[in-house]
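Question:
Now give any protein.
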Amino acid sequence: MQDQQPEAEQSQAPEQSTDQSDQQVEQPEPAASGTEELEDEIVDVEGVRAWLSDRLDWLQNQMFTLGVAIEAAILLAAIVPAAFFGPRLRKIIQSQIAPRAPYGVLRRAANAFAHIATPIALYVVLQIAVIALQAAGSSTGLISAGVSLLTAWIVIRLVTLVIRSPFWSRVAFYVVWPIAALDAFGVLDDVVRQLDSFAFPIGESEDGVQQRYSALDLVRTIIVFGVLFWGARLLNSLITGRINAIDELTVSFKALLSKILDVLLPIIALVAALQIVGFPFATLAIFGGAVGLGIGLGMQRTVSNFFAGFTLIADKSIKPGDVIEIDGAYGWVTQMNARYVSLRTRDGTAYLVPNDRFIEEGVVNWSHDDRVVRLHAPFGVAYSTKDLRGLARKVEETALTIDRVLKTPAPRCNLMEFGDSSVNFDLRFWINDPANGTKNVTSDVMMAIWDLLHELEIEIPFPQRDLHIKSTPDGVKMVSETREAALSKPREE
């Protein structure tokens, strides 16, 4: 028992020392735990590690796999058949399809397809590869991403080559390319759901259901309206071309139809776009009336010009091709748009006149009913001219030497008045092409009259007065007598 007691004491001693050492080790634990809690509050270290681990596992499981390697090899191998069939497809389009397409958008579309024949061939090869991989049960994520990006590039390139509009090219780039990129990275559905979540209420339906309009609906409306608006413009140009080719219609009626199409087709495109996206028109009855009233007050002048344009075309006061003069501007009408009339002057500038000014202020139409107009060339001769009738006949004959002066009606030289300094005439002559200018032909006629008067030695007098002095002061008489005496006295040498 005594021998065992020390052993028991010895066995207890290490246990006590071990407990003391554990206590010594565990003493700093409160400080360490406090630091870890502070780090966890600032940065979720475990969450970051878990996310990085998940991403690494995804890369290992999804990207560094045999299926992805096969898809990458197919993407590289697809370039070979595309480079082989692309030039042959281009030759077929250029030789067989493009020459048979009518001029305009269809011809540009055919040339555009020929220009990007190789990318189109690559697109076809990749689609065949996707179908084959899906049939084999293999993954197609990488090739599908490549197809999405290639589709976006083809669409943007086609828009650039066919429409030839910087605006629509930018729209295609900033709309199609982001959509394709989002779809390629697999986040398009998330973006769509996020856009659909941003919505505001616009009223209730007849059944009491709350109606909402989201950011996704707005994006869809803009895209659909853009496509329909472009189609409306294309349809408008085609219909306008057909209308202008009909000789039985008057110019004013053609302009009226063109103006109606310019306004009606965009409105139809907007209403159709809203109808396609499911916009509830019934919920905006009161709100739409208030907005319409505000727009009407704010656009009063624009609406006035719009209806004034219809009035001008309907009453045929002016029409394209007429020679008019308004506010000192002289030219011929080239276009009659919804808001203004384009007047091309003799200087080559375009004078844009609002439609309502023609109705409020009036206009001089040189070719309203007839393009034959009469011009004037006034001149005066001295009272010493004897044969005034003969002079008038010669002036009329001289006017006929000018090419633009008409023989019928014949020129007429009228004696207008016996003026203070001259006998005044007015040569009246006619032309039938006022669009070529009136001042220039008047100048030619007056130049010819000038040459005729100098040839006949007929004086064109200056303004003159006869001065008769009844009486003079004595001083003036003395100066006059002195001057006469000095002139009569011989000059001494």
